[in-house]
């Protein structure tokens, strides 16, 4: 699915959007490719590289608390902050691969619920970039790392970057009473 951002009227917002990417380090080959895809899409959509903040956590389990803490910190600018504005959107990226125990189901459900709760309570878009996979091959495909010509491989991080831009722009417009 390709998200069209060219129809967004308030293109001026793109360059000063602040986007955070919070990612797990577990399943790093998959995750780092997804992070690169998200950054690439953000920059191509007009987000200034200095306004993209990337933070890592050990695993997907830690994503909700990290997203919440990073967003809260962005609400209180400091002298070392590159910008005084809070994040317009946050992309949470991780890759969970099903094993032989119920661990996968518990983590996937808790992380999904936690991230949804955060975006509803904080009114900030949290892009769900947590892949729930049956095997590593699915992850490599979704990170754009597998397959040759004619393969279904596509880096989903690019879609998440575009979704963050779209929702960041719309969120700013909605706050001004403008409905795009």
UniProtKB/TrEMBL annotation:
Reaction(s) catalysed by this chain's protein: (2S)-2-hydroxy-3-oxobutyl phosphate + 5-amino-6-(D-ribitylamino)uracil = 6,7-dimethyl-8-(1-D-ribityl)lumazine + phosphate + 2 H2O + H(+)
GO cellular component, one term: riboflavin synthase complex
Record-given protein name: 6,7-dimethyl-8-ribityllumazine synthase
Residues annotated as signal peptide: none
Gene Ontology MF terms: 6,7-dimethyl-8-ribityllumazine synthase activity
An example Gene Ontology biological process: riboflavin biosynthetic process
Entry keyword set: Riboflavin biosynthesis, Transferase
This enzyme's EC code(s): 2.5.1.78
Function: Catalyzes the formation of 6,7-dimethyl-8-ribityllumazine by condensation of 5-amino-6-(D-ribitylamino)uracil with 3,4-dihydroxy-2-butanone 4-phosphate. This is the penultimate step in the biosynthesis of riboflavin.
Upper taxonomic lineage: Eukaryota, Fungi, Dikarya, Ascomycota, Pezizomycotina
Organism: Ajellomyces capsulatus (strain H143) (Darling's disease fungus)
Family named by the database record: Belongs to the DMRL synthase family.
Domain of life: Eukaryota
């Amino acid at each position: 699915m390709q998200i069209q951002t060219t129809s967004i009227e308030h293109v001026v917002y793109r360059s000063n959007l602040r986007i955070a990417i919070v990612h797990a380090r577990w399943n790093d080959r998959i995750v780092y490719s997804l992070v690169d895809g998200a950054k690439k899409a953000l920059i191509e959509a007009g987000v200034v590289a200095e306004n993209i903040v990337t933070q890592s956590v050990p695993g997907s389990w830690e994503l909700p608390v990290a997203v919440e803490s990073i967003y809260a910190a962005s609400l209180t600018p400091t002298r070392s902050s590159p910008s005084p504005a809070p994040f317009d959107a946050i992309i949470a990226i991780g890759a969970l691969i099903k094993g032989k125990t119920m661990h996968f189901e518990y983590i996937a459900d808790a992380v999904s619920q936690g991230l949804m709760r955060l975006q509803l309570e904080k009114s900030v878009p949290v892009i769900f970039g947590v892949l729930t996979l049956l095997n590593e091959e699915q992850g490599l495909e979704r990170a754009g790392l597998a397959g040759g010509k004619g393969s279904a491989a596509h880096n989903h991080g690019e879609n998440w970057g575009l979704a963050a831009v779209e929702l960041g722009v719309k969120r700013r417009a909605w706050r001004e009473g403008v409905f795009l």
